[in-house]
Amino acid sequence: MELRQLRYFVAIVDHGSLSRAARVLHVAQPALTQQLRQLEDELGAQLLHRSAQGVLTNDAGKIFYEHAQAILKQLGDARSAVIQSSARPGGAVALGIPQSVSGALALPLLTAVRAQYPDINLQLSEELSGNLIEQLKSGRINLAVLFDDDQLTPFTTTPLVEEQLMFITRSDSRFASKAASITLADALRVPLILPSLPHGVRPRIEKRVQASGLAIGQVIEINSIAILKSAILADLGATILPAAPVLAEIEHGSMRAQAITEPGITREVALCASKSIPLTTAAAAVERLVLEVTQDLCGSGRWLGARDLTQGI
């Protein structure tokens, strides 16, 4: 198996067509087809479904595509680690951020990277935390912001913030109380819009509810932050989330966040890297910058409901 075969296969999948991949790679299509056939013969499995409309990966192809991406990513990182300067780091850095954190961290981090490290190409991916864990294990991303739920032992972890989960409604919602805070028991009496198990904050909420001897009633389960926001703005119910995903709506006055008490619910957010794959100079620079941006966001109050855990690191 040759590295060019991996590059060719990834290009074919990315472009959905042998002809388009051949044009991008500047390779004759018959030669590209021959390399693909040799790869499939060596693996003893067909990787693609071919049709008049293009190509799609089958189950074996999807698995091989993920591994090929990881191998090519690590090869590129190894090359960058040798040639890049520590004084002016550059190259691609892939960072994964969960949907419920990106609203607070993504734009300030992008802005800071552009200002301090113009030669770094920061590639942000917004995913469910479970997907990010698999991508970080395989080396497809360099860093990931993850929730510390006692499943981060495969990674080196740096605590970022402790986030307070809040009771969030439309600003003029019939479900909102006039007080600045709401008890957990009262919050659970409202129709709730939450991610389904085991996604996002739902396991943390369920654990705290059970420990308090309470029960969750009516729930609308939505795993998309965008759809969840629409449901809140339609006043179908309230949600229990960190404030980060709805910061823009809170600032614009269309949503309201109330602290939850008796008891409160929090989660810890950490920056994670692989224990087995070294960080490039550029990735290490981004790692440091994530801490600096986090400190600034918490110190200024722009990361609403978050307590800085980076001090002293």
UniProtKB/TrEMBL annotation:
<keyword id="KW-0804">Transcription</keyword>
<dbReference type="InterPro" id="IPR005119">
    <property type="entry name" value="LysR_subst-bd"/>
</dbReference>
<dbReference type="Pfam" id="PF00126">
    <property type="entry name" value="HTH_1"/>
</dbReference>
<protein>
    <submittedName>
        <fullName>LysR substrate-binding domain-containing protein</fullName>
    </submittedName>
</protein>
<dbReference type="Pfam" id="PF03466">
    <property type="entry name" value="LysR_substrate"/>
</dbReference>
<dbReference type="InterPro" id="IPR000847">
    <property type="entry name" value="LysR_HTH_N"/>
</dbReference>
<keyword id="KW-0805">Transcription regulation</keyword>
<comment type="similarity">
    <text>Belongs to the LysR transcriptional regulatory family.</text>
</comment>
<dbReference type="InterPro" id="IPR036390">
    <property type="entry name" value="WH_DNA-bd_sf"/>
</dbReference>
<dbReference type="InterPro" id="IPR036388">
    <property type="entry name" value="WH-like_DNA-bd_sf"/>
</dbReference>
<feature type="domain" description="HTH lysR-type">
    <location>
        <begin position="1"/>
        <end position="57"/>
    </location>
</feature>
<keyword id="KW-0238">DNA-binding</keyword>
<keyword id="KW-0010">Activator</keyword>
